[in-house]
């Protein structure tokens, strides 16, 4: 178990260890999917079949007689604007926030790519596999920061005595849409402690405090009474249609007062804050600003900054100090441009279960 109240703040870079897409790779796949065009007016010559079918259904949902071509046109706009001109789908959608079809098309494609990437990542579990309940590449998952976190959480846990305390002092804020952490922790409980999925789900649902700031592509079935989408299950067109509305891009204003209060309280109450794979966007740091009145106390901050310049590291530290200013007290910030998520854990995780 964690020795101190610890807040993990997770960004897109944290998925690198298990082959989840981010940045340019995500944008390129979306551009390919939404670049839907036809030959002779009916033979599709480019774009993704599933994306095209989902956009057709989306058009019908808006109006039973609706023509899907305006949605296809919006998709081609996105593809043209991304290829060579933008490395971020979020940034592109922000620049075109006044175009509702562009928003719907882009967000639907984000959901599709994330769900398909879960299917392709190292953490996917094939329910038909003769190996039983096993990750696609268990060796890579065990070399990742996910396994390092698990090693901390399971320290001192005895199944018959204190298993429901495994997530004590753990809080999570994630800027990602995927469900990799929840899926991994469910697998950990099932395999390490030999729990049925329902029992693992009960513990996670009751005890794990995780906030997806910009939404989650879909609930896992055990998070939503059997009505979600299983991790890695390839979606069909009808699955995708409602998912675009679950996505908020990082440039959009977050107006959920309850969520904003919760984020600020998590930052204010933490005794240790760990940034994993974050880009430290100004809006994200603003959302994380600690709450008044000042809580005081000591807090230690650790942050990955792999391949960032010395000046960028100084700026990140300044952003973190500004984020913490309302809470008062004292803080100690440790950032290193040599640290990716695994390296940060290797540096400190032996102490986190004791202190």
Radius of gyration: 21 Å
CATH architecture term of the largest domain: 3-Layer(aba) Sandwich
First-last Cα distance: 10 Å
For this structure, the quaternary state is single chain
* Average of pLDDT: 93
Strand content: 5-15%
CATH class bucket of the largest domain: Alpha Beta
Widest β-sheet, arrangement of strands: 5-4-1-6-7-8
User: How is the CATH topology of the largest domain named?
Assistant: Rossmann fold
Query: Structural class, from secondary structure content?
Result: alpha/beta
The low-pLDDT segments are none
Query: What is the helix tally?
Result: 15
- Number of DSSP strands? 8
Give the topology string: H per helix, E per strand.
EHEEHHHHHHHEHHEHHEHEHEH
Total domain modules: 2
Shape: globular
Helix content: 40-55%
The major sheet is characterized as: 6 strands, parallel
Question: What can you tell me about this protein's structure?
Answer:
45% of the residues lie in helices and 11% in strands. It is of the alpha/beta class. Strand 2 and strand 3 form a beta hairpin. Helix 3 packs across helix 5.
List keywords for this structure.
355 residues, alpha/beta, Rossmann fold, 2 domains, six-stranded parallel β-sheet, 8 strands, 45% helix, 11% strand, globular
């Amino acid at each position: 178990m964690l020795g101190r109240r610890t807040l993990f703040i997770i960004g897109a870079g944290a998925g690198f260890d298990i082959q989840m897409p981010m940045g340019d790779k995500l944008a390129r796949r979306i551009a390919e999917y939404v670049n839907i065009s036809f030959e002779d007016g009916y033979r599709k010559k480019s774009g993704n079949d599933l994306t095209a079918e989902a956009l057709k259904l989306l058009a019908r949902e808006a109006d039973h007689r609706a023509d899907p071509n305006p949605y296809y046109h919006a998709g081609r706009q996105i593809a043209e604007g991304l290829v060579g001109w933008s490395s971020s789908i979020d940034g592109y959608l922000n620049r075109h926030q006044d175009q509702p079809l562009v928003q719907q098309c882009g967000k639907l494609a984000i959901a599709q790519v994330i769900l398909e990437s879960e299917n392709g990542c190292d953490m996917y579990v094939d329910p038909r596999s003769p190996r039983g309940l096993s990750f696609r590449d268990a060796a890579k998952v065990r070399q990742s920061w996910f396994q390092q976190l698990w090693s901390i959480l399971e320290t001192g846990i005895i199944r018959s005595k204190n298993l429901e305390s495994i997530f004590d002092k753990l809080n999570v804020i994630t800027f990602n849409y995927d469900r990799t952490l929840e899926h991994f922790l469910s697998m950990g409980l099932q395999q390490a402690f030999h729990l049925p999925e329902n029992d693992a789900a009960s513990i996670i649902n009751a005890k794990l405090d995780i906030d997806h700031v910009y939404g989650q592509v879909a609930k896992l079935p055990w998070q939503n009474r059997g009505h979600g989408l299983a991790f890695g299950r390839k979606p069909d067109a009808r699955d995708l249609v409602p998912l675009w509305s679950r996505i908020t891009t990082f440039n959009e204003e977050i107006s959920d007062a309850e969520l904003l209060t919760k984020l600020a309280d998590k930052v204010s109450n933490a005794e240790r804050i760990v940034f994993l794979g974050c880009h430290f966007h100004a809006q994200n740091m603003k959302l994380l600003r600690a709450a008044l009145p000042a809580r005081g106390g000591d807090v230690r901050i650790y942050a990955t900054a792999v391949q960032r310049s010395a000046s960028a590291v100084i700026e990140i530290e300044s952003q973190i100090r500004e984020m913490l200013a309302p809470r008062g007290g004292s803080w100690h910030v440790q950032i290193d441009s040599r640290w990716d998520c695994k390296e940060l854990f290797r540096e400190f995780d032996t102490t986190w279960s004791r202190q």
